[in-house]
Specification:
By secondary structure, this protein is mainly beta. It contains one helix and six strands; from the N terminus they run αββββββ. It has a five-stranded mixed β-barrel. A hairpin with a 5-residue loop joins strand 2 and strand 3.
């Protein structure tokens, strides 16, 4: 693995471009606190927003809003549900996506 990173340094800084309108907006991921976003054409992307660097009109806020930016490593969207008979909640992965590093957005 060390040889792979030495010969191909692009793997060490894996950033992926994304862009398009928001077609799914789910602001209720609990662990970690994040918003799960799915973009439509031209690049279909599943993304997670956790307070990345925002340009233009601030963070993603609604369906149809256009986003353009860079993302990196995949992370899950986890919600907590009751887990009988124990009083402790159980984590359930309901989706996830690439973590947004920075982006620009429309109104």
């Amino acid at each position: 693995m060390i040889a792979a990173f030495s010969l191909f340094p692009g793997f060490a800084v894996a950033q992926f471009p994304f862009g398009g309108p928001i077609t799914w907006y789910f602001p209720a991921c609990e662990v970690p606190p994040a918003t799960w976003i799915i973009l439509g054409p031209p690049t279909f992307s599943s993304l997670m927003y956790m307070g990345a660097l925002s340009y233009s009109y601030g963070p993603p806020s609604h369906w149809g809003q256009q986003l353009l930016g860079m993302s990196t490593a995949w992370m899950p969207c986890i919600i907590l549900v009751p887990c009988p008979p124990s009083p402790a909640p159980c984590p359930v992965i309901i989706g996830g996506g690439m973590l947004i590093l920075f982006h620009g957005s429309s109104h």
